[in-house]
Design a protein that fits this description.
mainly alpha, about 55% helix, about 5% strand, about 220 residues, 9 helices
Length: about 220
């Protein structure tokens, strides 16, 4: 029976086309398999002197990390069981990186902006900052794949702190506070649309607040 995996098909396909699985051939089981090009992730190569590593597939870092983590767990077992070799699995280590910190700061600012009316005047600048941080520095945003992994309980380990900040920060604010702070203050796509709208000088359609509130409830 083939091992079970719950990856979003499009990302798993990228691993095949990027030949990720071919990179595992001829690697040693007597030391960890590291992941190149994945700064901030557990198991990151980070200039280690070893040939026992693979390179992530561009545009599918999370999936590359998940596969490498799963393979490493298997090779760690084989190494201890059949080769009398034990090594510390780097994918079990917790890492707090600059991207995680930046994402937390964005959420804290957005939370403050949702309750402090004076910050509304800075809305366009907060959106611009969120666009830069979330869209280009962190490169993480709420997508169907994130929600699907939550629904199917394919939840990553705590080493992937960014996933928890993104999902539970977004959904938590909605359920606990009744405010969709992500769409209003954080989403890089929404920020881009609003910034372009401001630059183009388009006028508001004049939809009443009551209708707007109902639409927000329906869409979220």
């Amino acid at each position: 029976m083939a091992p079970r995996q719950g990856e979003t098909p499009i990302f798993f396909t990228r691993l095949y086309t990027g030949k990720l699985f071919d990179q595992f051939k001829n690697l040693s089981v007597k030391e960890p398999i590291y992941l190149g090009g994945a700064s901030g992730y557990s198991g990151y190569l980070d200039e280690k002197q070893t040939n026992n590593y693979i390179d992530r597939v561009t545009g599918s870092t999370v999936s590359s990390h998940a596969v490498a983590e799963a393979v490493n767990k298997g090779t760690a077992y084989i190494a201890s069981k059949f080769f009398n070799t034990r090594w510390s699995n780097p994918y079990d280590s917790y890492q707090f990186n600059r991207q995680d910190l930046a994402m937390m700061v964005v959420y804290i600012i957005a939370l403050a902006a949702a309750f402090i009316k004076k910050l509304v005047r800075l809305r366009i600048w907060i959106l611009l900052a969120s666009f830069g941080v979330m869209g280009f520095f962190v490169k993480e945003f709420v997508a169907a794949s994130n929600l699907f992994s939550l629904i199917t309980l394919e939840i990553p380990g705590l080493t992937n702190l960014g996933w928890y900040v993104l999902i539970f920060g977004t959904l938590g604010f909605i359920f606990l506070l009744g405010k969709n702070i992500y769409c209003a203050w954080i989403c890089p796509f929404g920020a881009a649309q609003e910034i372009i709208n401001k630059a183009a000088g388009f006028k508001s359609l004049g939809i009443s607040p009551q209708v707007t509130r109902k639409l927000i409830v329906v869409l979220t």
